[in-house]
Specification:
Helix content: 25-40%
Family: Belongs to the Mediator complex subunit 16 family.
Strand content: 15-25%
Keywords: Activator, Nucleus, Transcription, Transcription regulation
Domain Mediator complex subunit 16 C-terminal: 719-811
Organism: Escovopsis weberi
Distance between the termini: 25 Å
Largest sheet: 5 strands, antiparallel
Subunit structure: Component of the Mediator complex.
C-alpha cells in the first residue's frame, strides 16, 4: 500500500531496497508519524522508527528470524492508537460545519469518544497483524523498550479453502474487532480483548504503572459469521467477474450527528470489475455492507431449561448475542480503488480508477458535498476546490489532511495531485491578510488563551501547545526564502518561537537528572545564553532607533496613531509589538529569569572554586571543564551591554502600565455604549474585549488607541532612562549574526557572502564545508548539526529536542548539500 506524508522528503530508493529487499506492504502509525511497519510476501515484519529525521530510518525490529512461509503473509495490519493523555475525559472535540452568520462563521462543536484499546504506557503503540493462516500477531514494546511478540490462532486452517484472503481490524470501545474473509467465501467477525497485565487480569490499563512489566494475553471471541457472496436472483453479484473481493473494511461505531445515539460497527466489502477493450461489460463496483448488531438473547422454552438442568448445567445466562444484518448494496459504475474514513469515521472517501473522488456519509452511504455554497461548509469541495483530472490510475494514497494524493498511473509513474481552485485566482497564502485571518479563526474556534497580561508565572504559557501551533503557522507563512526578508508577522512569530525554545532548553538543562551531572554540567554549551542576551541587545537597539526616528515619534499623537503600525511594517521593525503583546512580553520575561538564574548560578560556582583554590582544601581534583563552563556563562552575562535584571524591570514596569490601562479604559468604553452590562456580565464583556486586543497584537495588528499614553511613557520615560545606563554605540555596532533576524539589504548580502547558517540547537554559527551532516526543518527551513550526545547532560537536553522550535520534523541533508 502506498503512503503519503504531509511533510514529504526525498528518500534514496536504493537505500530502501538494501534495507528491506522485496517489501510489499507498509503500515504507518497515524498519530506521530514516527513508526513504520514493512511486510514482505512471506509475512516477515520489520519495524522502523524515525526518532529524529523523517528520511533517516532506524530499524527497531529485523525480520531475519521470521519464518519463511507463504501462509504467514499479512492480510491486514493495524496500529493501536496512542493512549489518551486524560483517561478521565477521553474525548476529542471537533468543529464543523461552519455556518455563515453575516461576515463571520459559527463552528458547530461536537465531541468524539476516544475510547479504544491502546498500549498502557503513554506515547507507545503496538502493531496488530492478521495472517493468511488465521493467526493474529501483536508486536508490542516492553517497559525496557524491548520489542516482543504475542501470537494466537483465530482460525484453524486445515485446507486451502480455509485460508484468510482478506482481513480488516478496527477498535470498538475497549476491544478490537477483526473481520476475516476466507477462500470459501465465509465472512467472520471476531472480538479480541487484550489483557496487558496477563491472563485473567481485570486491571484497567489506566491503573497500570508506567514502569509496569507487561505480559499481554489475547482473548478471542467469535461473534458472527455469514457469506460475503450471497446470491440473489437478478443481482449483479451473480456475475463471475464480480465473485472476488477487492478489499475488506471494518468501520467502527460512531456517534451520530445528533449526538443522541451511536451507529453500530459495519463490515464493508468491495467487489470491482474493470472494463476491458472489446468487452461489452462496463466497469462496476458493488459495495456490500453488514451492520454489527448486538441483540438480547431470546429466552428458551422451559422444557429446554429442564433438559439443561438434568446435565447439571446452570440456567443459561441471559445476555447479548451478535448478528450481522445485511444492508442494501451500493452499486457504482466505476472501479473503486480506495475507501478511507475521515472526520473521525463520519465520512467516507472513495477514489475511483479514473481519478475522481467522492465523499459519502458513513451512515447512509449517500454522496455528500456535491453542492457548492458558502452558507454551510464542511469540506473544501463545497467552496470550489477540486482535484485536477490526471487520467486513469492503478493505486492511490491520500495525505493525512486529504488536500493532496499520490497516484500510480497506467504508465507506472507516480503523480502528485493537489487541490486547486479552478474558479479563479484567490491570491496566495503568503499574503499577510490571509495569515492573520487564518490565525484569528483558529484562536476563536479553539478558544486559545492569548492574554497573559495578568499572568505572573509562565508555566501555562510554555505548555500552551495550541498557541505554539498558531505561532508556527505565522512563522511558516512569513518565510519567503533564506535571503529574503520575512513578513512583519512572520518575523514576530519567529522571535517568539525561538525565545520559547531557548527557555525550554535552559529549563531542561537546569533540571537534568542527577545521573547526567556526574561528569559534566549540561550548561557547558553557552549558545542559548549568548542568543538570549543578544536578542535583548538587538531589541533595545531597535527601540532606541525608533526613539530617535522623527518620522516615528511624529506619529505618537492621537491624530496619526493609525499610521504607527503601517510605518513599522514598512520598516519591518517588530520591537514595539514584542513589548506590547502580553504573549511575547511573557516569553521575554521568562527568558530574562532563566538567564538571571544562570548568571547567579555561575557566580556562586566561580566563587566556590575560588574559595577552594585559596584555602587549598580540595578533596578531589577540580573539574576544569566544569569551571570553564561556568566561566563562559558568566563572561556572556557580564560582558553584555544590557543587564538582564534591568531589562526585566523594564518589562515589569511596562506590563504594570498596560494592566492599569486595561482596567481604566475598558470598563469606561463598555459603559459608554447603550445597554451597558451590569455586575459580573460587565467583567465578562471587559475580559472579552481585552482578549480581542491581545489577539490583534499577537497577530501583528495595530494596538488599541488607548495604548498611546503607554507608548509615550515607554519612549519618553523608560527608554531614555535605560539609555543612560548603557552604551548605545556598543548596541549599534554589536554583531547579531546568531539571531538571524536582521533582514535589511546589507545584512542579507553579508549573510549570503559569508555562507553562514545558525545552529538552532547550539545557537552557534555554522559554515559550509564541515564534516558533520546537517538537519533541516521541513516546515520553517531552520538548520542544525546532526549531532549525537557524548556528554551526559548534553545528551539529556538533546534527547528532548526531537523537533524544530516551530514544531516541524527534521530531515537529514546529504553531505555537502543544503537543500532537500
Amino acid at each position: 500500500m502506498p503512503l503519503i506524508l504531509d511533510n514529504a522528503v526525498p528518500v534514496d530508493l536504493n537505500d530502501v531496497d538494501d534495507l528491506f529487499g522485496d517489501a510489499v506492504g507498509l503500515s504507518l502509525q497515524e498519530r506521530s508519524q514516527s513508526k513504520l511497519a514493512v511486510f514482505d510476501a512471506l509475512g516477515r515484519v520489520a519495524l522502523v522508527s524515525f526518532p529524529i529525521s523523517l528520511n533517516s530510518p532506524y530499524l527497531t525490529r529485523k525480520w531475519d528470524a521470521d519464518a519463511l512461509d507463504d501462509v504467514n503473509a499479512v492480510a491486514a495490519s493495524y496500529w493501536l492508537p496512542l493512549a489518551h493523555p486524560n483517561p478521565q475525559k477521553p474525548f476529542v472535540a471537533t468543529y464543523g460545519p461552519a455556518t455563515r452568520n453575516g461576515y463571520q462563521y459559527h463552528y458547530e462543536k461536537s465531541v468524539v469518544h476516544a475510547v479504544a484499546p491502546s498500549h498502557p504506557h503513554l506515547a507507545k503503540s503496538a502493531l496488530v497483524c492478521v495472517t493468511l493462516n488465521g493467526s493474529l500477531k501483536l508486536f508490542w514494546s516492553q517497559n525496557n523498550n524491548k520489542l516482543e511478540e504475542t501470537v494466537i490462532e483465530l482460525e484453524s486452517v486445515l485446507s486451502a479453502d480455509e485460508l484468510v484472503t482478506h482481513a480488516a481490524i478496527g477498535s470498538d470501545k475497549k476491544n478490537l474487532l477483526v473481520a476475516v474473509a476466507t477462500s470459501s467465501r465465509q465472512l467472520r467477525l471476531i472480538k479480541i480483548e487484550i489483557e496487558w497485565a496477563g491472563p485473567g487480569s481485570q486491571t484497567d490499563k489506566t491503573s497500570l504503572p508506567q514502569n509496569a512489566r507487561l505480559s499481554p494475553s489475547l482473548i478471542e471471541t467469535h461473534l458472527a459469521a455469514t457469506s460475503w457472496l450471497q446470491a440473489v436472483p437478478g443481482d449483479a453479484g451473480n456475475d463471475a467477474s464480480l465473485a472476488e473481493l477487492s478489499s475488506l473494511h471494518l468501520l467502527p461505531s460512531v456517534l451520530e450527528s445528533t449526538g443522541k445515539s451511536t451507529a453500530a460497527p459495519m463490515i464493508v466489502t468491495v467487489r470491482s470489475r474493470a472494463h476491458h477493450a472489446g468487452s461489452y461489460q462496463m466497469a462496476q463496483t458493488i459495495i456490500d455492507r453488514w451492520e454489527v448488531l448486538g441483540e438480547q438473547q431470546r429466552n428458551l422454552h422451559p422444557a429446554f431449561e429442564q433438559l439443561g438442568s438434568r446435565r447439571n448445567d446452570g440456567p443459561e445466562e441471559q445476555g447479548l448475542y451478535t448478528r450481522l444484518r445485511k444492508l442494501e448494496p451500493v452499486i457504482l459504475n466505476r472501479v473503486v480503488l480506495l475507501l478511507q474514513v475521515t472526520q473521525h469515521g463520519r465520512v467516507l472517501v472513495l477514489v475511483m480508477s479514473d481519478g475522481t473522488v467522492e465523499y459519502r456519509d458513513r451512515l447512509s452511504f449517500e454522496e455528500i458535498y456535491q453542492n457548492e455554497g458558502t452558507d454551510r461548509i464542511m469540506n473544501l469541495r463545497q467552496v470550489g476546490w477540486a482535484f485536477s483530472d490526471e487520467g486513469l490510475c492503478q493505486q492511490v494514497a491520500f495525505s493525512p489532511t486529504q488536500c493532496s494524493m499520490i497516484q500510480l498511473g497506467e504508465d507506472g509513474k507516480f503523480r502528485w495531485i493537489k487541490l486547486h481552485f479552478p474558479l479563479g485566482d484567490i491570491g496566495n497564502s503568503h499574503q499577510d491578510g490571509f495569515a492573520q485571518d487564518w490565525v484569528n479563526e483558529i484562536i476563536r474556534i479553539l478558544k486559545i488563551q492569548v492574554d497573559y497580561s495578568e499572568e505572573l508565572h509562565h508555566e501555562s504559557l510554555m505548555r500552551n501547545t495550541p498557541l505554539h501551533s498558531c505561532l508556527s503557522i505565522m512563522n511558516s507563512l512569513g518565510f519567503r526564502g533564506e535571503l529574503q526578508p520575512r513578513s512583519f508577522q512572520g518575523k514576530l512569530a519567529m522571535i517568539e518561537v525561538n525565545a520559547r525554545n531557548v527557555v525550554i532548553l535552559i529549563t531542561l538543562a537546569s533540571n537534568t537528572p542527577s545521573t547526567g551531572r556526574e561528569n559534566l554540567s549540561p550548561l557547558d554549551d553557552h549558545g542559548c545564553g549568548k542568543w538570549s542576551v543578544d536578542l535583548l541587545s538587538w531589541l533595545l537597539d531597535s527601540l532606541f532607533g525608533l526613539m530617535s526616528d522623527d518620522e516615528f515619534t511624529a506619529r505618537l499623537v492621537s491624530a496619526r496613531f493609525g499610521e504607527i503600525t503601517p510605518y513599522l511594517q514598512e520598516q519591518n521593525n517588530v520591537a514595539l509589538h514584542l513589548l506590547l503583546s502580553s504573549c511575547s512580553r511573557s516569553f521575554l520575561l521568562a527568558m530574562c529569569r532563566r538567564i538571571s538564574h544562570l548568571e547567579a548560578l555561575s557566580t556562586r560556582a566561580i566563587e566556590f572554586y575560588q574559595r577552594q583554590s585559596a584555602s587549598g582544601n580540595q578533596p578531589r581534583a577540580p573539574n576544569s571543564q566544569l569551571q570553564q563552563a561556568y566561566q563562559r556563562m558568566q563572561a556572556i552575562t557580564t560582558s553584555s551591554p544590557v543587564k538582564v535584571h534591568e531589562f526585566e524591570k523594564l518589562l515589569n514596569a511596562l506590563g504594570s502600565d498596560i494592566r492599569a490601562t486595561y482596567s481604566q479604559c475598558l470598563p469606561a468604553m463598555t459603559k459608554s455604549g447603550g445597554n451597558a452590562p451590569q455586575g459580573k456580565q460587565m467583567d465578562v464583556v471587559v475580559k472579552g474585549r481585552q482578549i480581542q486586543y491581545e489577539m490583534a497584537m499577537l497577530n501583528a495588528a495595530s494596538p488599541p488607541n488607548f495604548f498611546l499614553p503607554v507608548m509615550k511613557k515607554l519612549f519618553g520615560t523608560y527608554l531614555p532612562a535605560f539609555r543612560n545606563s548603557v552604551d548605545p554605540t556598543s548596541l549599534f555596532f554589536a554583531d547579531y549574526e546568531i539571531l538571524g533576524i536582521q533582514d535589511d539589504r546589507t545584512s542579507l548580502a553579508a549573510r549570503e557572502a559569508k555562507g553562514v547558517y545558525v545552529d538552532l540547537f547550539r545557537r552557534a554559527v555554522l559554515k559550509k564545508g564541515g564534516q558533520q551532516q546537517w538537519r533541516r526543518c521541513t516546515r520553517c527551513a531552520s538548520v542544525m548539526e546532526d549531532v549525537s550526545g557524548t556528554r551526559p547532560g548534553f545528551t539529556f537536553v538533546l534527547s528532548q529536542q526531537r523537533k524544530c522550535s516551530c514544531g516541524g520534523f527534521w530531515a537529514l541533508l546529504p553531505k555537502e548539500k543544503f537543500v532537500l
